[in-house]
């Protein structure tokens, strides 16, 4: 077990070092996510007031679109110089490599969300500080569920020519439950009369989803990576 | 790993046969060349030997039978691909350190320092690989493949883009590994360099093995006879 997390840590650290040097994924995903939120605010906000319950939907649309962009890029990088083959040739557990890539992606998406959340709060008058712990749990569980499936699909598609088109086509239908749970749970916290039990229910559902799909992804990563 | 045995190996991509009926055995201490024109199946065969591709048919045995796949086998293989398996955004030291840790090499700083010394890049250890020439990258990539002292070394076109000095250094390093008892399998088009280096040549054409010999002289003539 120690070796598993050691490998995952090294893969994540390597991904972060590469990202810090290039800042390619962070800049493009942040710019994209901010653009999505701004476009929605120009279209929806009238005289400084946004319609009720739209903030949660816009937040999750921005997260999912930006996340999809990051997922594609994180494996695209491994195609340059064929480093993906070097990773899977190593005697390390292949699921540990998946875990390292997933942790790196989660860290990047967390950075995007740290920028995105205040922006949504500001533009759509969403009470982001009313329930900070529950909101953080919703975002963490939702992002994990989305990224767990997305990282697996991005790895599966890395050798496919039309991978950029196929990734969202495959990912979005499978992650509809994550999006529904994320939006409904966040909306329950953002509405005028916050509904804590409802938010807790959706957090529970997300945790259940995460447990299933992280396990499935770890289980299937090795056969997926074997040609 | 004393022996590598390839038995009736085939690889199909749909209806297209990339490889069929490949049979050979080679022993530790040999340098085996996979020779053939483009599309002969050399890289496919190397990838199957590296466990990166599964054979559609047949069997590859590492050592005296037993393990044919899995982490234990991968830990005994070092591969240098046509692409160099290096991260251009990382320095030479960071690349080697990352892979040394992935291979669970003991005493990583010492092993990496030794690898940099062998590559002749101690002075450039903290420079990004993206700023290196092809020859320098090739040297780092070779040391990356040898960090964990593999018993089976697989090289795909290792002499491509190298000048005379770099080629000579690579040949010397391969000879040193041969003397250490490693089995080296390399795919190459560069028959001038391979002449005198190979202890065994395997000739491939259109995915089929069309010959094999163990001579050390007259490789070009032997190649022409086998491939025509």
Question: What topology emerges from the helices and strands here?
Answer:
The complex is a heterodimer of chains A (227) and B (228).
Chain A: H1 2-22, H2 24-44, H3 54-79, H4 83-89, H5 94-124, H6 132-156, H7 163-174, H8 176-190, H9 196-225
Helix pairs in contact in A: 1-5, 2-3, 2-5, 3-5, 3-6, 3-8, 5-6, 5-9, 6-7, 6-8, 6-9, 8-9
Chain B: E1 3-13, E2 16-27, E3 31-35, H1 42-49, E4 57-62, H2 71-74, E5 77-80, H3 92-102, H4 108-119, H5 134-146, E6 152-156, H6 164-179, E7 183-187, H7 191-194, E8 200-205, E9 208-213, H8 219-227
Parallel strand pairs in B: 3-7, 3-8, 5-6, 6-7
Antiparallel strand pairs in B: 1-2, 1-4, 8-9
Helix pairs in contact in B: 3-4, 4-5
Give the overall pLDDT of chain B as a whole number: 89
The amount of helix of chain A comes to over 70%
Output the strand order for the largest sheet of chain B: 5-6-7-3-8-9
Q: Using CB atoms under 8 Å apart, which protein chain pair has the greatest interface?
A: A-B, 25 and 31 residues
Name the structural class of chain A.
mainly alpha
Number of strands of chain A: 0
Verbal overview:
The complex is a heterodimer of chains A (227) and B (228). By secondary structure, chain A is mainly α. The radius of gyration of chain A is 18 Å and the shape is globular. In chain A, helix 5 (94-124) runs antiparallel to helix 9 (196-225) and helix 6 runs parallel beside helix 9 (196-225). In chain A, 46% of the residues are buried. Chain A has one domain (2-225). Helix content of chain A is 83%, strand content 0%. Chain B is an alpha/beta fold and 228 residues long. Helices cover 34% and strands 26% of the residues of chain B. Chain B is built from eight helices and nine strands. In chain B, the strands form two sheets. A six-stranded mixed sheet of chain B has the order 5-6-7-3-8-9, sandwiched between helices. In chain B, a hairpin with a 2-residue loop joins strand 1 and strand 2. The model of chain B has no long low-confidence stretch (mean pLDDT 89). The A-B interface holds A 3, 6-7, 10-11, 14, 17-18, 21-22, 80-83, 85-93, 226-227 and B 47, 50-54, 71-72, 74-75, 77, 79, 81-90, 94, 98-99, 101-104, 128, 144.
